Amino acid sequence: MNTWTDMQEIQPLVSQMLINSLKKDRISHAYLFQGAKGTGKREISKHFAKSIFCPNREEAAPCLECRECRRIDSGNHPDVHWVEPDGASIKKDQILHLQKEFTYTGMESNRKIYIIDDADKMTVNASNRLLKFLEEPSKQTTAMLLTENGQSMLDTIRSRCQLMAFQPLNPVHVERKLIAEGLSESSARLFANMTNNLTEALEMSEDDWFANARKLVIQLIEVLQNNPSEALLFINHKWMPHFKERVQLQQGLDLLIFWFKDLINFHLDRQEALVFIQEKERMEQAAMKWSRQKAVKQLSFLLEAKRKINQNVHPTLVMEQLTLHLQG
């Protein structure tokens, strides 16, 4: 993401609100950027900082080429301060150091910006210290607090910030980005549906565990289709040894859910909605075994299995019961 136009594609509402504040010269003293990981909080906060400092800005758009823009990009701008967790938390001393920095005159202007990443990880003492900082804002100071979990922050801090709610990314946008990163269309489609977090999607694409999980799902479908009596054996000897953790098992169930959703879409001739786009031949064969109504029924069994896993029912018991239903 290099321009406001790029950012409007992934976060249209937040981007437009920030653009309007720049155009009207009504920049708030503090913003709370709240949204899931990978929704563009860091990129947009950095771009907003460029827009504030860029001497060549045209309306809201920074030039991206001047000394100010380049230094913000590299993290070396003397009047843009980043605060990140030191270990598991952001500590009081880090906020005290930030306050000390802000007592000095700006290196090149009176304008200063500070960006606190993972702001929900501030300790109680750090939060109270930041609160005092926010209570006496300077007109030349802009704070951006970035968080995935704004509800865990002090209400008094939240009330002093303008809330910017970052929405989950559109799977189509994530898919395009993944293809641009070099993934095949089939892999990009699958990972974009597994997560709307671009970073997580790229990590999955490089994960051997996930590649094997994908293979096991296809193998289980083939066993259910061609040798259903061997399905329980497959679950106990191949499936469970791979999906050892509950979060892994949830991912395996998600993949199976995508398969049966694909089967329903295949019956409805909605080819554009398919996730396993490289498995059309297998899908044709599966359509002969499972009618649309049967696929809907199997989907309900899978969703029930996910609910039981969330309720800490024993994973092996859940999978064995699910397999008996899928065999039927």
UniProtKB/TrEMBL annotation:
According to the UniProt entry, its GO molecular function terms are: DNA-directed DNA polymerase activity
EC number(s) per entry = 2.7.7.7
SUPFAM superfamilies from the xrefs? P-loop containing nucleoside triphosphate hydrolases
* Keyword line: Nucleotidyltransferase, Transferase
Keyword Hydrolase applies: no
Q: Which InterPro entries match?
A: DNA_pol_HolB (IPR004622), DNA_Rep/Repair_Clamp_Loader (IPR050238), P-loop_NTPase (IPR027417)
- Which enzyme type, at the first EC level? transferase
What is one Pfam family matched by this protein? DNA_pol3_delta2
Top-level taxon of the source organism: Bacteria
What is the name listed in the Swiss-Prot or TrEMBL entry for this protein?
DNA polymerase III subunit delta
User: Which residue stretches, if any, does this entry annotate as coiled coil?
Assistant: none
